[in-house]
Design brief:
- Pfam families: Isochorismatase.
- The chain has 4 helices and 6 strands, in the order βαββαβαβαβ.
- The chain has one domain: Isochorismatase-like (Rossmann fold), CATH 3.40.50.
- By secondary structure, it is α/β, with parallel strands linked by helices.
- It binds pyrazine-2-carboxylic acid (VGL) and zinc ion (ZN).
- Zinc ion binds next to loops.
């Protein structure tokens, strides 16, 4: 399947932060391996003057998703820490890019880039109808961002060569992908885009 990028399209790169990298506190296996491919997508969208959105987990240090504060996760992506920064090799365009912080208040967690953010408003303002989503983790924030986009009426493409999952339970990422596809998302890879 070939997909032509038009001005209705936006790229969403989910949570490519140090804490989710293989040597981070909440490691996603091989998360760093998708960076070169994600950079190719980012440069392609930049060249075509399409917007690129970077979501990031941006938690206070006593966030409810953390063990000891009611959650299941080790403390991760605490605001203004090294672990919350994007991986140093991730290419961030200087123009037409947006950083979307989520999970930034203590009592509210957000796996979806749409939850509690202005992402949908920014997309609507720009007339965006189709989303291309990559990043981590397939079974948490990618999944929920994709489902959120579908629910809001966007056509959503999942970058199959640009996602990695945490798989707390074996098969979680595969299940998550199947759910996204069931709900109407389409899998694509870099070669499918022109
Ligand atoms: C995520 C677990 C906890 C993610 C965020 O970005 O997928 N996973 N917080
Ligand atoms: Zn989190």
């Amino acid at each position: 399947m070939k997909v032509k990028i038009t001005d209705l399209d936006a790229l969403i790169i989910v949570d490519m932060q140090n804490d989710f990298m293989p040597d981070g506190v909440l490691p996603v296996k091989d998360a760093d391996k998708i960076i070169p491919r994600l950079n190719e997508y980012i440069k392609m969208f930049e060249e075509k003057s399409n917007p690129v959105f970077f979501t990031r987990d941006w938690h206070p240090e006593n966030h409810i998703s953390f063990k000891g504060f009611g959650g299941i996760w080790p403390p991760h992506c605490v605001q203004d820490t090294e672990g919350a920064k994007f991986h140093k090799d991730l290419y961030i365009p200087s123009d037409n890019k947006f950083i979307i912080s989520k999970g930034d208040s203590r009592d509210f967690d957000a796996y979806s880039g749409f939850q509690g953010t202005i992402l949908n408003d920014l997309l609507k303002e720009r007339g965006i109808k189709r989303l291309f989503v990559g990043g981590v983790a397939t079974d948490y924030c990618v999944k929920n961002t994709v489902l959120g986009g579908l629910n809001l009426g966007y056509q959503v493409f999942v970058l199959e060569d640009g996602i990695k999952g945490v798989d707390v339970n074996e098969g979680d990422s595969e299940k998550a992908l199947n759910l996204m596809l069931d709900k109407g998302a389409t899998l694509i890879k870099f070669e499918d885009i022109k």
